[in-house]
Specification:
By secondary structure, the protein is an alpha+beta fold. 19% of the residues are buried. This is Large ribosomal subunit protein mL45.
Length: 263
């Protein structure tokens, strides 16, 4: 009867006199490697002051909503509240205009309405042509991303044409706000644009999705324009949003849309 015997060779201990013995264990070697690696990382990541300034192009929000006056009867709670809000908005509008005139010279409120309407027309025409370069020059980055995602796909084409102005563009709301620091100021002006325009949305085959490309329609838009006050040398007025109007039976104080990125 045969029995199998398993022979396991024991690992011999390396002598200290051997040339292959370095006198250090595995743990000590790993600690030295980590320390040398950390020294290299510390050498590459030297604490240097950030001398390059950063520029915030737009705050990305509308500072204050504009609520059109509904002309409720004065001796009612709703009428009294409406007049009080109109008084406060008028006070803050005058206060904000002082800041704008201090940083932007010359600035005339009577001339801003027509120039704002030209920016509004240029934005819609660039959107109809699908010109990214022209659209970026007249709208902020947040509005550009929203409009390009909605109207730049190849399966949707916008046809837009400005016919005439029904009334003169009117400045109805002005606000100045700060972003991160007190010196970084932005001005936002809401302009009421009442115009006749032709607008239609078609698919890639020319079929109508909405609107009409022949029948002019009267449209009232409350467009918000924005400009940085600190960098007046390179700052320009751009469209940063639009406030949507609601029917008469809807309470605008509760349902007014804020920061709608549509032109």
């Amino acid at each position: 009867m045969f029995t199998s015997v398993l022979v396991i060779q024991a690992r011999t201990k390396v002598s200290k006199k051997s040339p292959f013995h370095d006198g250090k264990g595995h743990k000590e070697k790993m600690q030295e490697a980590n320390s040398s690696r950390q020294k290299y990382i510390d050498k590459m990541t030297v604490n240097r002051p950030l001398n390059r300034p950063y520029l915030i192009e737009s705050p990305g929000v509308i500072f204050s909503d504009y609520l059109p006056i509904r002309r409720y009867y004065f001796f009612t709670p709703r009428g009294i509240k409406e007049r009080w809000n109109a008084f406060k908005n008028g006070f803050w509008t005058i206060y904000s205009l002082v800041y704008i005139r201090r940083h932007i010279k010359p600035f005339k409120l009577t001339d801003f309405g027509p120039s704002a309407q030209e920016i509004y027309i240029a934005a819609n025409e660039a959107l109809a042509r699908k010109s990214k370069k022209d659209l970026q020059e007249v709208v902020t980055n947040s509005v550009y991303r929203a409009l390009s995602n909605e109207f730049f796909p190849p399966n949707k084409n916008l046809h837009w044409r400005f016919v005439s102005a029904v009334t003169r563009p009117q400045v109805v709301h002005v606000r100045v706000g700060q972003v991160q620091t007190k010196d970084n100021l932005f001005a936002q002006i809401t302009v009421k644009i009442h115009s006749k325009q032709v607008m239609a949305v078609k698919d890639r085959y020319g079929r109508h999705i909405s609107g009409s490309d022949k029948l002019p329609k009267q449209v009232i838009d409350y467009v918000v324009f924005e400009r940085p006050l600190t960098s007046t040398k390179y700052g320009t007025w751009k469209v940063c949003g639009k406030l949507h109007a609601f029917p008469a039976e809807v309470d605008t104080g509760k349902h007014l849309v804020k920061n709608v990125p549509a032109v």
